[in-house]
Specification:
twelve-stranded antiparallel β-sheet, four-stranded antiparallel β-sheet
Length: 209
């Protein structure tokens, strides 16, 4: 007689913005689910599954904020060789680490190799065609990276990720609304250890008072 392993646990955490989240983790057989809800009724659901017959696994995130302006799904399917495809659908203001200029309806597929490096993008964002060139996601043939507008105290520096050799260019400053903003853009290293080609990865952090 077969049986399934079941597991459940509830806990809380406070994110970097001071918002309290309640988390319910559960597992039934090879399917693991983590449902997170904050005090504003924003909801994030992570689901992970394993298919032993095909040796493939999936990881899914569904995020919805309280007013439904953000409602998107991120589904990553891993193949036996370690490569993966990521499908982004719904309304969102970012694709992976790539911030968008605003909230858009997206139907995008990202292809990654066994090392997690992006090799292709396809689909549409706001009805515009998504492509991939020189390590960067393009929207309607143009750079997808949303440059921040700084009003003062802007400065740029760089650092090397010793784990994978990525060259990160960092710009910090105060935006037009008085918020501190830090944007990071990833590049390969050239032969001299300097800035090479764009990898397509970027991230933005900010704080306000």
């Amino acid at each position: 007689v077969g049986y399934e392993t079941t597991y459940a646990n509830t806990w809380t955490y406070t994110d970097h913005d001071g918002v309290l989240w309640t988390v319910v983790d559960s597992q039934v057989g090879d399917a693991w689910t983590s449902t997170q809800t904050n005090i504003y009724n924003d909801t994030r659901v992570h689901t992970s599954t394993w298919d032993s017959s095909t040796n493939t696994s999936t990881w899914n995130e569904h995020f919805t904020n309280s007013d439904k302006t953000l409602d998107y799904n991120t589904l990553e399917t891993y193949k036996q060789d370690g490569s993966s495809t990521v499908n982004y659908t719904g309304t969102t203001d970012h694709i992976g680490w790539n911030p968008l200029a605003g909230i858009s309806t997206v139907i995008v597929t990202e292809t990654r190799d066994a090392y997690g490096v992006t090799t292709a993008f396809s689909g549409t964002i706001g009805g515009l065609t998504v492509s991939f060139s020189n390590g960067e996601m393009l929207i309607d043939g143009k750079s997808s990276f949303k440059a921040e507008e700084f009003s003062e105290s802007e400065f740029t520096w760089n650092w090397i990720d010793e784990w994978d050799g990525t060259y990160w260019e960092v710009t910090e400053g105060t935006d037009l609304n008085g918020n501190w903003v830090m944007s990071e853009i990833a590049y390969t290293q050239d032969n001299n250890g300097g800035k090479g080609d764009l990898t397509g990865d970027s991230r933005i952090g900010w704080s306000s008072w």
